[in-house]
Design goal:
The protein is of the alpha+beta class. It is built from 25 helices and 26 strands. Among the domains are: 2-238, Rossmann fold; 254-293 and 600-738, no CATH class; 301-365 and 564-591, no CATH class.
Length: 740
Amino acid sequence: MLELKNIYKSYQLSDNRQEVLKDINISFRKNEFVSILGPSGSGKTTLLNIIGGIDNYDSGDLIIDNISTTKYTNSNWDNYRNKKIGFVFQNYNLIDHLSIFDNVRLALTLSGLSKNEVYNKSVDALKSVGLIEHINKKPNQLSGGQMQRVAIARAIVKNPDIIVADEPTGALDSKTSAEIMKILKDISKNRLVIMVTHNQELAKEYSSRIVSIEDGKIINDSNPYKVINKDKNEISSNKSLKFITSLELSFKNLLTKRKRAILTSFACSIGIIGIALVLSITNGVNKYIKDVEVNSINDYPIIIERNTYDVFETVSLPRKKCENNKVCINDEKNGLIIKNNIKDFKNYIDINDKFKKYATNIVSSYDIDLNVYNKDYKKIDKDLFKELNFSDYSIVYGRKPKEYNEIVIVLDKNNYLSKDFLSYLNLDINKTHFTYNEIINNSFKLILNTDYYKKEENHYVDYSNNLEFIKNIVNSGVDLKIVGILNSEESMNSCIGYTEKLNKYLIDNISKTEIYRDQINSKKTNVTNNTNFDDFDNTYESLEKFLGVYEINNPSKISIYAKDYKSKEKIISLINEYNEKQTDKDKIKYNDMMKLLVDTLLNILNVISYVLIGFASISLVVSSIMISIITYISVLERTKEIGVLRAIGASKKDIKKIFNAETIIEGFLAGVIGIIITKFLSVFINLIVRNIIDIKNISILSINNIFSLIILSILVNLLSGLKPSITASNKNIVDAFRCD
């Protein structure tokens, strides 16, 4: 079963090498109680450690079931210790933070047994040594004899072939020693028990065989044995330590040092808190900006202009610096005016019902300057007039306009009217407020652009500077009636609103005038002075705008007001569908100023966030150094536990798992603490910001942020503990037992 052939073992001590075992040859039966006697320093413990697989021999061979161990790998030795060997130590080597049940159960963690089997076997082992009533006690609650019984139960629970006991009675009184020896003798009836002891009397009384060793050599064997059975019996491979078991062991260890664990986790959470606060405020500001974009959906429509810039590309596209002594020219893609085929696109909108489905209003603008005068023949600033989408405005007084000649006064969101309006409305500019009736009981006069011209001989003369002429045409102009007063939460300035019907009225009536017909019939000639256009396209466009010579299906601008944010995305998709069918020249370029503004703000915010996260991450680096130190301290504190685990067959990889599990637990705890503190601080941040600038929920931590930060915390702690965990896994088993 077990043979040692020509075993030599030595240790390097300073500059000298000391031989401990010299040509050891011995074989053991499958079941006997062997006591190894000898003075201190004779090599008996080293011999026991080699038999137990926790120390290596220099030369010779240890043969297990007729299989040589000379080519054993670390994994083979782990399997051997787990399947074949049970250890009983003089100082018990129980793990203090585990109950005696968990100490015994620990030996089965690599067995691959079910939970019920592990439980039943552990209970049976404790029953066999008479400790079932102490099953939930910790080692420090037991006597020395009871602790040694726990060690024996741990040794036999996995039913090994060999029990090795190193001075099992060395720290016990005579009565307790006798009890332990009786237990070991009973065990030897079914398996091999090899015990190292100084007590010759106990050895002679209980052992079936006594081997004496002196100066590293066997000098006497009371019942020698020569191996007869040559059958080979391979040791089955070992199961690795389950990660859940690693977590359990580490968690119970952390519970014994809970104050330190909590303080360490809190310190590690500071970096997480910093990053979490930056993310939460970034989320809140992002949401606020997005909400502004959504709420302003009708104040900032999608705009398609006849002549436009590709604003997005102009802003975002980087340009290299022009070479010295040269002037570089932009191509169209870099921001020059782009000409949209707006006429064809308007036809596409008119026949596509989906636009009407997603838009509250589609406004066609013609760059017509409204020529409006008050009762005193004072021309009203054209910039005060706006064609509006009235669905987003609330009625303060009166009603919304229905006919082409109906207009409304739009107040700002606080119901204020600018002083510019007062003189136009013939109101006293020194008064601070007016009744609705005082404002609404007014009207203006509208004239056409073409009304300023009078035909003389073969061309048209501009009389816009002739006051008497102006009075005559104003008196015969169209009455614009103020039918209501409106406002909106988003209205920043007061203005005069009108409907698209007014544009259509102007175009229809201009098209009936003589100057319009003459200009249409002679496009290359300026009918106001009978000269040819030098640059037909640009000059004629200027004259077109000045005269108001427009086609109803060829506006200068189309504004599409979406119903909501999702509808806006649908409208953009429709525009993209249109562009896919067009050549590059005919593709429509649209502008979405709110999106441009929002994207710019979000980009700036993200850059600031990255910088702040970078600063907050410095504390994570400090935390990682601290975790590395704390884990290394834990390795030193748990050295005995490492030795016990290696003795029962745990591999180096299993030891790494245990300490990695500890850093994972601390990382998880640090992440949770960081999230809780961030949530707590967010309540106060939100209250303060809401009271100061009336913005709700400026600090928002999303579920994704929470999970990501906890995972980040775990990863930082795990990486920080890798080096100490490797140090732990590389600890020599014998040295681990020597460390207290």
